[in-house]
Structures are given as structure tokens and as C-alpha cells.
Amino acid sequence: MTDELFEKIESEKPLTAPDLRKILELESPADLDRLFKAAYAVKERVSGRKVFLRGIIEASNICVKDCYYCGIRKSSRNIPRFQLSATEIVDAAMWANTHRYGSIVIQGGERNDETFIKLIEDAVREIKEKSAGHLGITLSMGEQTPEVYRRWFDAGAHRYLLRIESSNPELYRKLHPSDHSHAARLKCLETLKSVGYQVGTGVMIGLPFQTIDDLVGDLLFFQKMDVDMIGMGPYLVSRDTPLAKEMPDFDAMKKHQLKLGLKMIAAARLLLKNVNIAATTALQALDPRGREQGLLAGANVIMPNLTAVQYRSSYQLYDNKPCLDENSEQCRFCLERRVQSIGESVAWDEWGDSLHFAARKI
Ligand code: 5AD
Ligand code: FES
Q: Is the CB of 282 under 6 A from ligand 1?
């Protein structure tokens, strides 16, 4: 019964797999409202009524991977490929520093060649120096060797995001070519932790073939991996990818995808308490106020786009990505307004490390 469930949620008793399943199956507006409020209360306690920013620099859409869902996969023929120079990355980062963002994420397609590795290493080192250590640097560049993770860490990056995409290896197999390995990705997450990074992972929500129990498994995976940050978002169709045919009527699914994404955020907050959870851009692709809804369901991080407008349209992992024509200045202004609209404030100039990481280090 939902009364029992809410009693457990609101008194913050430990949640079991069946509880998580019930949470993800809640549907009535009254139940969802109660769920989001409970998750928000936990967020407010562990992180305050403020939002941490990670300015996101999309450094390159060149990718050696070929994930069936992704618009910039290796086999996508009709997109112009770009790679920012180290100087362009540093300039975007310094813009973020001047505008008091506190932290940045450098994200890109996966490349494993030395030219690329060195470019990122140099850019990170220069950002660290030029910002006098002020700017927190997160990387999200896929699977790399332990040596590369270490080089980038030594250069000054201190957080790394690597989504597991799904905790279920069977489902992972359906979404990727046979040479993409779930086990290798798991190993990378372990390596990142042992190198000393704050580690973030996440999944796509509402994927073809995915069940509610898969999502419950994802939440328990986050708990077991003891990660510091969660970046997850609804699956969105990218037209020319192999997975698109599995969801032919995506427009009719949008409300469902958004709701499921929000329920996952709330469930993650209730289960994991003191981690950082991002309200991702994918939520906004489904609803103009998607990210605000994410914050109200328990997220505490937003990642405004810092990519130069001329490159934005080439970095579309999915269709209808928002803010393609807005520049960094416009995104900054729009974001502050959105955050204020729900009675929160932006944590300007703060790194915003998760309390979870501080606890884990001891
Ligand atoms: N819909 C939603 N998220 C996607 N990603 C890639 N393609 C899609 C899509 N079609 C996500 C993956 C990846 C991250 C960079 O973007 O989870 O890890
Ligand atoms: Fe794997 Fe883009 S090719 S997420």
C-alpha cells in the first residue's frame, strides 16, 4: 500500500528493492507530488536550497564508439566532426571562471589516441594554472587506460563522469556493438576511484527493452558502487541511429519518459541521500521546465552549456536538444532565472563537492 511506502519514505527508513519498485510505479499526481516533496526535503537537508553549476564544454564530437542510441556515434555520416583546440577549451573554461561558475565539465566523444590525450592533459593543466586552482574540473571522455586517467588527474582534473548506461549487462549488450564491453566499463569506474577521482555514473531511463526491475537494479548499482555523483536522464530518440526504430512513436512517449526520469531522480535522492545529482539537459529536451522539475524532485546540479554556438548543432546526442542557438551569456542568464523561479539560488563560485565524497575519503 502506498501509505506504508510513504511512511517509510518520510521517516527515511532504508529502502529495499521492492520499495524502489513501488516508487517507480507511482502514477497518480498526488502520489508523485508527495514523492517529489519527500526527495526535495532530503536534498534541502544535505545540500541546501541551492544549485551547483558545472559549465559544460563539448570539446569534440569525434568518437571511436558506435553506441546504437547516440547521434555522434562513429557511424553517423551526416554530421560535421569538430575538435576544439586546447586554447579554445581553455578560453571557454576561463569564461566560466570569470562568470563565477565554480566548476566545469569537459565532455567529448571517446578517443584513445595520444594526440587527443595530450591535448586534454595540456588544456586541464592550463585551466588549473590560469584559474589559480579556483575552477573545479570534471572530465567525461569515456573509457581510457589507468595511465591516461592518472595523467589527467595529475594535470588537475578531480572528477570524472562515466555512465554505465545500464547496470544490466544483457540490456547493455542490446544497446551496443559486440566489441563494447560492460565489464570494461565497470573496470574503468573502479580504476577512476582508485586514482582518486570523485566518480559519477548514470544510466539512460526509459530505454527500449528496459524494465522497471532494470531501473531498480540501476539504483542499487549506484548504491553498491558508492559513487559521488549521478548524471542520468531519459532516453531520447536520435533519428538516424539503429535504436530509433525500437521507439517509432517517441512523441507519444515524451510525458512518460519525463515522469520516469523524475521518479528516478527522486528515488536516487531518497536512497543515496548525500550524493550530487544532476538535472540533465535531456529533461529539458522533453519539457521546457524539465530541469526545474528535476531540481524539485531532488537534483542539486545543473550543467549549463558553454560550447560556442557554431559547434552546438554538431553535438547532438539526441534530437531536439535545447539551447542550440543560445550563447553562454544567454544560458547563464536563463539559468539563474530558472533557478530563482523555484525559490533556489545559484551557488556561484563554489566547487560543490558532494558530501558523500568527503565522507568516503575518511
Ligand atoms: N538519449 C539520451 N541520452 C543519450 N546519451 C547518448 N545518446 C543518448 C540518447 N539518444 C547519453 C549517454 C552518454 C551520454 C554522454 O549521453 O548516456 O553516456
Ligand atoms: Fe557511445 Fe556516443 S557513441 S555515447
A: yes
